[in-house]
Specification:
- By secondary structure, the chain is an alpha/beta fold.
- It has a single domain, classed as Peroxisomal Thiolase, Chain A, domain 1, CATH 3.40.47.10.
- Helix content is about 35%, strand content about 20%.
- It has helices spanning about 15-20, 45, 50-65, 85-95, 105-110, 115-125, 140-150, 170-175, 230-240, 260-275, 285, 295-305; strands at about 1-10, 25, 75-80, 130, 155-165, 185, 200-210, 215-225, 250-255, 280, 320-330, 330-340.
- The strands form two sheets. The protein has a ten-stranded mixed sheet, sandwiched between helices. A two-stranded antiparallel ribbon has the order 2-6.
- Helix 10 (about 260-275) links the parallel strand 9 and strand 10 (about 280).
- Helix 3 crosses helix 6.
- It is globular, with a radius of gyration of 19 Å.
- About 50% of the residues are buried.
- GO terms for molecular function: acyltransferase activity.
Amino acid sequence: MFIRSAYAVSPQLSFELLIENPEQYSGAQLICKEPDYTKYIDQKLIRRMSRIIKMGAAAAMECVQTSGVAMPDAIISGTAYGCLADTEQFLTRMVEFKEELLSPTAFIQSTHNTVGAQIALMLQCHNYNNTYVHRGSSFETALLDAISLIQDDDAEKVLVGGVDEITEKSHAILKRFGLYKKDGNTETLINSGTKGTMAGEGAAFFLLTKSKENSWAKLDAIQTFYKPETESVVLIKRFLEGNNVSISDIDLVILGNNGDEQADEHYNKLAGALFAGKNCITYKQYCGEYPTSSSFALWLASKILNSGKVPGKSTALAPRRILIYNNYKLQYPSLYLLSAC
């Protein structure tokens, strides 16, 4: 399976600037740097769209334009939170108007599949369209569906992505559970030794094909789990063995450290046991923590393989094979194996 193109709307302006001078944030959350939407979306539509729909649509349209593919055979998205801003707006108006004279617009646009539907409308794509809402494995499930379609010859070119946003109200609710730091800083986030992380958001889309031609990277394998009883060290060894790859074949490991002391301890133990002496980097200091952040990690790995440049590793040789390991809330382990084309 090959990644023909990829694009992410994230708290970073671009991959090139991320390499040279990444955006730094302080506080409890990272907010996306939104592009000029008029490049991708009709101005009459923009004012009717919530922020997450615009982010998802822009990421998807840029991905399609870069790939040179006029029409994907399928559009698949994964999201855990869905369109939070529209949901909040509809619920607020229900209370304000005492459930009378409600406009249905916010409700219609609040459903989780709105992003995928809007992309299809913009592309005039009448092909397979699905959205997965599986909490911390939402993007992985969408990606597995895309891979299955291509392997079963039901599609040749699939647009797949992960999108999630954070709003003021959702952040206020989530921080009650002690998930986020009050005074976080992305420069010192990883291995900060304190409880909590920094919230993030983003939209990343990929054009998957069977053809190697003009592709950025090859997606060799993906596997996801839910609350496995087996230790992560064993899961990763089995994953690599199942794909006839040894630890020595891996040039770069991308880990999902998020700054929370318990989570970082999990990743650091794993790195010490399996990846001692290997080039390891983290990515959540660039995008923050959210259920579909692994889509940002996949975008980052694709750009690294395509460009040969590694964030924070200016002297590192261009990697040929990358392993991504993320474990959202230490309940949803996911593994990706990529190689250069």
